[in-house]
């Protein structure tokens, strides 16, 4: 079988099955996807597409039941203030349009991970040459702002962000104009700069399209086709006049996806050293790794100040910091600890809302990874549930 025959087999035989399976799994969001996928394939084998479609609802209920039961067990009065805080989180960083049936009363969807496209003998990775599309300074400023709002681009460093900005191309659409057609091949993703766009999907041939969501400025769509070489999973139409910035497949694969993979690997390894979180499993660490955000501080600035309330946990990616504590009233604070790359602080903020025990000052320019308590809880539930797996560990941090 030559290369073209392999590519035809992938496109005609495997992609239709894998795309539908991934879409159903993303919509169901099972706590453990493997049993769900096995059951999905068994349904497909027994009854074909129609049977698999009809079985989707019970599969979703079965997949979500353990999660719902866990959430009921985790509820307590002392968590009510944390739940209120979590409502202010921006939870709309979706990986694709297929994840968007928002139902009232359901918890917000967690951020999705960036996956990989397979390369091998019949799909070899080519040498990457950055694309440069000339832009005005105001366009660069607008793109930079939009990228900072999109979770997908959070792993980029300054150099990678510049390559992505250079490669982005401005696209303008009038109200009612089609941007993406369901079923077509896709080789770009879009970031919304201005306007609103509606997403619709036809779930069964011959049925009317179902409205899924409206995309707002700062959101992105279309990456699923780049990740999986799959046809567009839904249609996107401009609701108002809209300005978008498109990013091509090569830049996405070589810059955005690779940066996300390196970031995840680094954070997962890092999280294993955090004593408070040592009882997490690999899956939980990967979810936290994807949710961490990078922030920078200049030399001499304070990250936190003693006595302030806080719910953020920090890990040091680059730079050095000092912990300063007011020992005697009226005297200058003293240095009680030095921090360097690989250290962390503020981990107790994930557990409870207590004042900062010391001020943290930057000795050099620093880059930190941060996660707040409400984001942690949204992804994995209360931290004391994880601590509870190890009774001694739990008692130590509760003191």
Automatic annotation (TrEMBL):
Residues 52-94 are annotated as: Disordered. One of its GO terms (biological process) is cellular response to stress. Keywords: cAMP, cAMP-binding, Nucleotide-binding, Phosphoprotein, Repeat. Coiled coil: none annotated. It comes from the Eukaryota. 3',5'-cyclic AMP 2 binds at residues 347, 356. Residues 78-87 have a biased composition (Basic and acidic residues). InterPro entries: cAMP-dep_PK_reg_su-like (IPR050503), cAMP_dep_PK_reg_su (IPR012198), cNMP-bd_CS (IPR018488), cNMP-bd_dom (IPR000595), cNMP-bd_dom_sf (IPR018490), Dpy-30_motif (IPR007858), RmlC-like_jellyroll (IPR014710). GO terms for cellular component: cAMP-dependent protein kinase complex; cytosol. 3',5'-cyclic AMP 1 binds at residues 223, 232. Residues 152-273, 276-397 form the Cyclic nucleotide-binding domain. Signal peptide: none annotated. Residues 52-68 have a biased composition (Low complexity). PANTHER family: CAMP-DEPENDENT PROTEIN KINASE REGULATORY CHAIN, CAMP-DEPENDENT PROTEIN KINASE TYPE I REGULATORY SUBUNIT-RELATED. Belongs to the cAMP-dependent kinase regulatory chain family. This is cAMP-dependent protein kinase regulatory subunit. It comes from Ichthyophthirius multifiliis.
């Amino acid at each position: 079988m030559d290369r073209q025959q392999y590519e035809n087999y992938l496109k005609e035989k495997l992609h239709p099955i894998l795309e539908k399976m991934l879409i159903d799994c993303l919509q169901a969001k099972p706590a453990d996807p493997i049993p769900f996928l096995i059951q999905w394939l068994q349904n497909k084998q027994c009854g074909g597409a129609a049977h698999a479609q009809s079985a989707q609802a019970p599969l979703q209920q079965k997949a979500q039941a353990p999660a719902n039961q866990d959430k009921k067990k985790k509820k307590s009065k002392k968590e009510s203030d944390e739940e209120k805080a979590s409502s202010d989180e921006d939870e709309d960083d979706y990986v694709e349009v297929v994840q968007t049936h928002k139902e009232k009363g359901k918890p917000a969807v967690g951020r999705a991970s960036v996956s990989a496209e397979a390369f091998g003998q019949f799909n070899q990775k080519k040498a990457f040459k950055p694309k440069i599309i000339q832009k005005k300074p105001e366009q660069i400023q607008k793109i930079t702002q939009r990228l900072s709002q999109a979770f997908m681009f959070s792993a980029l460093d300054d150099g990678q962000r510049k390559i992505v900005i250079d490669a982005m191309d401005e696209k303008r659409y009038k109200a009612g104009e089609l941007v993406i057609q369901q079923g077509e091949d896709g080789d770009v993703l879009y970031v919304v700069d201005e306007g609103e766009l509606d997403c619709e999907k036809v779930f069964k041939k011959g049925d009317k399209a179902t409205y899924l969501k409206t995309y707002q400025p700062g959101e992105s769509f279309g990456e699923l086709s780049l990740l999986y070489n799959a046809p567009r999973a839904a249609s996107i139409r401009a609701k108002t006049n809209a300005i978008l910035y498109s990013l091509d497949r090569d830049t996405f694969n070589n810059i955005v996806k690779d940066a996300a993979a390196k970031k995840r690997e680094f954070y997962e390894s890092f999280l294993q050293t955090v004593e408070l979180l040592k009882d997490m499993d690999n899956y939980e660490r990967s979810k936290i790794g994807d949710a961490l955000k990078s922030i920078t501080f200049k030399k001499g600035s304070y990250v936190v100040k003693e006595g302030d309330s806080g719910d953020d946990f920090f890990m040091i990616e680059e730079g050095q910091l000092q912990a300063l504590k007011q020992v005697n009233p009226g005297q200058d604070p003293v240095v009680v600890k030095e921090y360097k790359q690989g250290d962390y602080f503020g981990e107790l903020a994930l557990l409870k809302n207590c004042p900062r025990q010391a001020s943290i000052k930057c000795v050099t320019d620093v880059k930190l990874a941060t996660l707040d308590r409400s984001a942690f809880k949204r992804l994995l539930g209360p931290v004391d549930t994880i601590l509870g797996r190890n009774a001694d560990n739990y008692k130590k941090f509760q003191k």
